[in-house]
Amino acid sequence: MIIFRYLAKEVFIxxxxxxxxxxxxxxxxxxxxxxxxxxxxxxxxxxxxxLMILELPTLLSLLVPLGFYIAMLLAYGRLYAESEMTVLGAxxxxxxxxxxxxxxxxxxxxxxxxxxxxxxxxLIYIERAKLLRTTGIKTLVQTIMPGRFHAINDGQEVFYVxxxxxxxxxxxxVFLAKKSSVNxxxxxxxxxxxxxFAETDAKTGxxxxxxxxxxxxxGIPGHADYQVAEFGQYxxxxxxxxxxxxxxxxxxxxxxxxxxxxxxxxxxxxLQWRLSVPLMVFTxxxxxxxxxxxxxxxxxxxxxxPAIIIYILYANLLFIARDLMIxxxxxxxxxxxxxxxxxxxxxxxxxxxxxxxxx
Length: 359
Known about the structure:
Layout: H1 2-39, H2 48-81, H3 84-90, H4 95-133, H5 137-142, E1 149-152, E2 157-164, E3 170-182, E4 185-200, E5 207-219, E6 227-237, H6 265-291, H7 304-326, H8 337-358
Antiparallel strand pairs: 1-2, 2-3, 3-4, 4-5, 5-6
Helix pairs in contact: 1-2, 2-4, 2-6, 2-7, 4-6, 6-7, 6-8, 7-8
């Protein structure tokens, strides 16, 4: 038990350090992407931090298997390099005990990853989808880029703003075109105003856009009978968007992806993917434990590069297997499992080879 606690301490301290570094790297990359989208007006800058927080749990669930794999490799590699494993072996602590204790640690890690992937991930993606697809008036105003035409509501409305106030709450020289249908003919309502700003009704919570000092043109393209009206103030209610999050498989609960042999291949592939991530913890453990065995003269980083190459191949094969399954090129029963079997088989080979050397 003392040896197990010592090994667990070494592995999990390394795991926390490695995972923290990996998370910072990936979050920095994600932050740059969100900042670029905010600069282009795709999303408002005020939601970037919320999106980053929502990214964190799913990102951790994907990076923890890699972190645990590298942590075992480095922690055990150091023990071999400093001959501590040799001392433990002299005390009767052999490779089988090391593998057993490693799997006990892997069970705890896999449970955490499984909870996030199977239960937490869909909830996180739902909140993320709601946040990204909320295009109310406040979000719309925050993302306006002066000097550009913007289309909303699937192109049914187009607007242009010449300039914005410094606090980004008022627009000047505003053009707004709204498409509608009259007697099965397309009609466009064109509005031009000197100023515009957003307003939310305190009682109803409805969002409105207020246009001031402008003109409205109504008519059917190609027809001369159009109407022109001048106004001092024009108030229009913006409809709340319809959020269709059910179309994204990542937002579906794991229970809704069942049964296992679902006729919808995309759902079956999503289910197998969610199960594959926690399973990776065990298959990578089978590889990391024998791979960490090194000659003391080689140094604790001797097997790091081969280990990273193995992980890259593993991850890419999983992505390929998922695409093949979705396209119908591989049967559901084979799905993503053949990749895990290859890695598990490779791990068993490494374990057998190490035991053969000790025999």
